[in-house]
UniProtKB/TrEMBL annotation:
Belongs to the methyltransferase superfamily. LaeA methyltransferase family. The lineage of its organism: Eukaryota, Fungi, Dikarya, Ascomycota, Pezizomycotina. It comes from Neoarthrinium moseri. Residues 1-35 are annotated as: Disordered. One of its GO terms (molecular function) is methyltransferase activity. InterPro entries: SAM-dependent_MTases_sf, SGNH_hydro, SGNH_hydro_sf. Residues 349-544 form the SGNH hydrolase-type esterase domain. This is SGNH hydrolase-type esterase domain-containing protein.
Amino acid sequence: MAQNSPLLRVSQSSSPSVLVGSTSDSSSADHSASTLLQPAPSHHYAVEGFFEPDRTFPEELDRIPSGSSVLDAESVVGDFGRTYHQFKQGRYLLPNDGAEQDRLDFQHAGMTVLLGGEHYLAPVSNPKHAIDIGTGTGIWAIDFAEKHPECQVVGSDLSAIQPPNAPSNCAFVKDDAEEEWLFPWKFDFVHLRFVFTCFNDHRRMMREAFKSMNSGAWIEYQDFPVTQIGSMDGQMEGSALQRWAFSVMTGMKTVMGRDIDVVANYAMWLQEIGFVDVQEKKLIWPLFATQEMACSGSPAVESQCPLPFEFRQLLQERSRFKERSYMTSRNEQLPLLRDSAVDPYAILLGDSMIERMQTTGQSASLDIWPSETLLSDISLQSLQQSSTTELRRLPRVFNAGVGGDKFENILYRLQGDPERQLPGLVDLLAPYKIRLWIIHAGTNNLHPKRGLSDASIGSLCLLLQIVSHMAGLRSRVLLTGLFHRTDIEERLVNEANAKLEKLARAMSTTMTDTSVVFIKAPQTVMRNVHLVDHVHLNGEGYRLWVETLFPQVIDNLEQVQVSRVDVATARASSIHRT
């Protein structure tokens, strides 16, 4: 997946930019150019040799988060414990904490690779004063100051999160670039990177920069339009990620009154303000790892695509320790997963209804599923007669069911428990290409008088979001319905299943390209016939369940395969047309 990041260079009457070119305007002042990074449709541009399959991953990106950060004492605490700037509070939407500082430093490393080891493209010569707007951690300003010891460099930001040990020719100020610039000198170089979310009025900031620049100075923008996320083969057209980008853009405009679809206007605005010789260069900015990169275990990939911080925080808040969950994970499931010579193909996740497939159903974990006890060969042949899809038992199905688990206990197993040295399934399963998740949970969340609470649905929603994130694009998550039982009214079970189905449908249309499919419990399973106690299925109950479930599992896998074949065909067609 790639984001096209163009570079626009502009020469101006007082505003610099990356990518050479300087001319004189009618007032005879030489104004240098600026480079704007903004993506365009990827199929229009190609950058030879960048991240080609036969090349090693750039060393600059082979890093992990530092774990260190600079605290702005005036920060305020927001949602999920993240901190935000207090100065001009609300002007900028992203956090300023350690996790964000690591992201900014990684972003800087990525741009350095993208620019061939450089930090800018403007033909800056012997600058005396330079400024980095929205400097963040100050890493660009520090690098520029070290490269130009004769230049006085200023890094400006709403947050004071820059290190105290910067070079003597580098200083940082807490300032708002949309307000009047009051510096006692004029600048030879103004640098801005990824600022499309930063300003209510970009033209006002440009005018302030223009007034504060020497004749022949350069301004350089490196930015990309959030609405032009795409892929070189067109796969992402109409994807959930594109829809998300438009949702973010709409939300920013509605909630903050800020238009972030602005990058395509930079060149025009700069020219209107007085910059001359404006030029643009487009580069490809990879947003996601390829399969080869993802399988390499590179720290760069791990730091680029972790489970989102908010999910980690919510996991910590919503998960609940249970002795049985901990002991089963530590002593049985995790050793089996780590010591196995085979990779899991699909995951069974949930409570005792899943766990007992191994005992009542005699279907061993990481073995063929379903076992002949769950689904005999005769039954399989009978099902095949009424199916247009070839029904084959699945290989390497990992059983991650634990009896008594509520949604909160399953979240605990996903997260793990560092204090008890228990790895989480999120991290252990990350390296594998899981084709399918089958989830049965909620049995133990049902209240005998109130049914399934909204709080429980919230925990299930988080569980499905996390599993969907792990599953990735064009994978399936199957959520199975709850069975009627002898200790709870049928009405409450039916209401609970209606909530589960509604949640699955909503997530399939709004979350990601991972489909969440609800599969109803078979009506042939009767609580007065097919239970061994108040809730658990007997052998015949499991056979009836799997006879209904298995064909739908295969059908969903087939749909995933078809979508992948369609993609391959589209690629082939485009090659032939070329």
